[in-house]
Amino acid sequence: MKALVHPTEATYDHIADAIADKGYCVLPQLLPANLNNALQQRVMNLDDEDFRRAGIGREQDFQLNNAIRRDETRWLTLDNKIDKTYLDQMAEFRLAINRRLFMGLFDYEAHYAHYAPGAFYKKHVDAFKGESNRVLTTVLYLNPEWREEDGGQLLIYAPGSDAVIETVNPNFGCFVIFLSEQFPHEVAKSYRDRYSIAGWFRLLDPLQAPLI
Ligand SMILES: O=C(O)CCC(=O)C(=O)O
Ligand SMILES: [Fe+2]
């Protein structure tokens, strides 16, 4: 991959302002096109074996799980060059946001997700107050030429409400950020294969930290 054109300081200012003002931000594009392309190639080349049916929390009950979400996921790891390039970009993002908002974001985890035709993810929150150290959710979409009728929209609800405040088509390169504990959201049923990377910035978990 050729040298990456990193997001500008002005872009990070814009994101930090949006998070501070309303708690979320939708960007038509954040990352350089060559990185988006490489990630798309990678996710399309992962086969069924690489993906694993995603679970919800500690819930092992397949029936319940199946009623709530139908995506398949695979974690990004540093030993893959393309995954690492993305994770490095998110490390830069983390520092840029910490410098502006003092959020104390400590690390980041992310998985590729594939929604086969018919798949969805019902309304949920990614983190419950005091139960998780996930504080900021990101989603990067990797679907060229998505059409409204393909479904698969991300619906973001107002905190503690049934009102949809944002409808996002999973367009190629689009990047969404929201406060994990604040915003219920769902993935409407997708009628096409839908690819994305969902990620979470986390706070330092005192239970997992080494004693110093
Ligand atoms: O892909 C999306 O639009 C959102 C996925 C999601 O909510 C999740 O994985 O927790
Ligand atoms: Fe979610």
From TrEMBL:
<protein>
    <submittedName>
        <fullName>SM-20-related protein</fullName>
    </submittedName>
</protein>
<dbReference type="GO" id="GO:0071456">
    <property type="term" value="P:cellular response to hypoxia"/>
</dbReference>
<keyword id="KW-0223">Dioxygenase</keyword>
<dbReference type="InterPro" id="IPR051559">
    <property type="entry name" value="HIF_prolyl_hydroxylases"/>
</dbReference>
<dbReference type="GO" id="GO:0008198">
    <property type="term" value="F:ferrous iron binding"/>
</dbReference>
<dbReference type="InterPro" id="IPR044862">
    <property type="entry name" value="Pro_4_hyd_alph_FE2OG_OXY"/>
</dbReference>
<dbReference type="InterPro" id="IPR006620">
    <property type="entry name" value="Pro_4_hyd_alph"/>
</dbReference>
<dbReference type="GO" id="GO:0031543">
    <property type="term" value="F:peptidyl-proline dioxygenase activity"/>
</dbReference>
<feature type="domain" description="Fe2OG dioxygenase">
    <location>
        <begin position="101"/>
        <end position="203"/>
    </location>
</feature>
<dbReference type="GO" id="GO:0031418">
    <property type="term" value="F:L-ascorbic acid binding"/>
</dbReference>
<keyword id="KW-0847">Vitamin C</keyword>
<dbReference type="InterPro" id="IPR005123">
    <property type="entry name" value="Oxoglu/Fe-dep_dioxygenase_dom"/>
</dbReference>
<keyword id="KW-0560">Oxidoreductase</keyword>
<keyword id="KW-0479">Metal-binding</keyword>
<dbReference type="Pfam" id="PF13640">
    <property type="entry name" value="2OG-FeII_Oxy_3"/>
</dbReference>
<keyword id="KW-0408">Iron</keyword>
